[in-house]
Specification:
Elements lengths: L1 E8 L3 H10 L5 E5 L10 E4 L2 E4 L10 H11 L4 E4 L2 E5 L2 E4 L11 H17 L12 H9 L1 H16 L11 H4 L5 H6 L13 E4 L6 H8 L5 E3 L3 E5 L4 E4 L3 E10 L3 H7 L5 H7 L6 E9 L8 E3 L9 E3 L14 E9 L6 H14 L9 E9 L8 H16 L2 E3 L1 H4 L6 H17 L6
Helix pairs in contact: 1-14, 3-4, 3-5, 4-5, 10-12
Length: 438
């Protein structure tokens, strides 16, 4: 039986970042069931196009992680100022909607402004990232009934596929921009776009987002692809790996979806398994299109209205022209479900029809190639069940010296920088001893 000090399940950014720390310092073994590294931060090639699993953009705030990313990608990275849109009531406006009401009809402007000012007069504060107030109440209380009615309600229903009066607000910061009164007032007359955590982002010049994962994976001597962990015995500190056999470990880092991970553990208490069974998520299907011509000059756009089967469209060739053949363009269309697969043929027809109506593409004849990609566990559902279950699961994992980290391992909503940081910090925590600072 192979023995290692550190078993890492999953070679997404979190697992790779942990492996990078362990390399040359402590024995480790990364088991990744796919045949490539990166997890969802991977790219797929087809007919000269490079398609990502949805829009994976690099947002950097932590100086140390920034230095690591720049060091990994070198010259293969560029800084981009966000250009994002919202399509509503047959009109394009800028994102965020709440500070860019200027092109909207007068009745929508009036409804949004008056309700916003009333809400702010009555409520001077709003819950932070730990808030458990339901999203519907929170959005009405902080943004008002107009903004909620025209954007927040329809968009978030489409995205989460879950009742908004049962969705908590623990995920909101920093993902829901909170405007000041002056921001909304300025946006009545002219664009007011510079609000939110992602006004600037980075993306590889070549190779798609997989370039980051591939750079991380380079020289990781104990990364093993095509190996799926099937069963874990915590008491014996062993894991059974398909196509490989058993492996004995001292420390365990999990980066795969928490509910699936708990299901792997043979000797997990029934109470923990029951709590894991309460965790919910949605599924996103991404239709990638390769087109014969370049596309409009924005990066992504939001579509709150129900006539659109998708909630967001991104133009990946505007992140980097080199993800498409010269003179051509590519985009991705995101459709969220509760896990049920769409009727792909009908969905494609509906998508293309709406892309033409909004002017994003001229006609279906522009389409050279297409590819559906599935994200089985896309967005973690922040509900009462998660709030109750997560501390109980985490407490048990901690007692067993198991680290479940990253967006899905920790069962949360986060971005790539945070995934890199958690992988790094967890590995250093193990190297330095639990509870000791780096």
């Amino acid at each position: 039986m192979l023995e290692t000090d550190n078993l890492i399940i999953g070679a997404g950014l979190t697992g790779l970042a942990a492996g990078k720390v362990f390399e040359g310092r402590s024995p480790y073994f990364i088991a990744e069931k796919a045949n490539g590294a990166g997890g969802l931060a991977a790219s797929v090639k087809k007919d000269g196009f490079i398609f990502d699993y949805s829009g994976h953009l690099i947002h950097l705030h932590d100086p140390e992680i920034s230095g690591q990313v720049f060091g990994l990608l070198g010259e293969n990275i560029k800084k981009i100022s966000r250009e994002t849109k919202v399509f509503l009531h047959g009109t394009w406006t800028d994102f965020p909607f709440q500070t860019n009401l200027y092109p909207m009809p007068e009745n929508i402007k009036k409804a949004c402004l008056n309700a916003f000012l009333k809400a702010r007069k009555e409520n001077k504060s709003y819950p932070g990232p730990e808030g458990t107030e339901n999203f519907e109440n929170w959005a009405l209380r902080t943004l008002g009934s107009g903004i909620y009615r025209y954007f927040m309600r329809p968009y978030n229903l489409k995205l989460w596929q879950y009742p908004l009066d049962q969705l908590t607000t623990e995920w909101c910061a920093p993902f829901v921009p909170q405007p000041k009164e002056d921001d909304v007032l300025k946006g009545l007359k002219r664009p007011n776009k510079k609000l939110g955590y992602n006004t600037v982002f980075y993306y590889p010049k070549t190779g798609g987002i997989a370039s980051l994962a591939n750079s991380l994976a380079k020289n990781l001597n104990s990364l093993r692809l095509g190996l799926e962990v099937e069963e874990i015995n915590i008491k014996e500190r062993t894991a059974e790996i398909r196509h490989f056999g058993p492996i004995h470990f001292k420390n365990l880092i999990n980066t795969t979806p928490l509910n699936t991970f708990i299901g792997m553990i043979k000797d997990a208490p029934d109470t923990v398994k029951k709590q894991a069974g309460r965790l919910r998520n949605n599924t996103v299907y991404v239709l990638n299109l390769g087109l014969s011509k370049p596309l409009p000059e924005f990066h992504w756009a939001y579509f709150p209205e129900s006539v659109f089967p998708f909630y967001r469209v991104g133009i990946s060739s505007n992140f980097s022209a080199r993800v498409a053949p010269r003179g051509k363009g590519s985009l991705y269309i995101e459709i969220a479900t509760d896990g049920t697969a769409p009727d792909f043929d009908n969905a494609e027809r509906a998508v293309i029809r709406q892309l033409v109506k909004t002017g994003i593409i001229i006609s279906k004849e522009q389409i050279i190639t297409k590819m559906w990609l599935k994200i089985p566990c896309a967005y973690v559902i922040f509900n009462k069940e998660r709030t109750e279950a997560l501390p109980l699961i985490s407490e048990w994992l901690e007692t067993e010296n198991i680290y479940s980290v990253g967006r899905y391992g920790a069962w949360k909503y986060s971005f790539m920088e945070e995934s890199l940081k958690e992988g790094r910090d967890t590995a250093y925590k193990i190297l330095n001893g639990a509870g000791r600072k780096r």
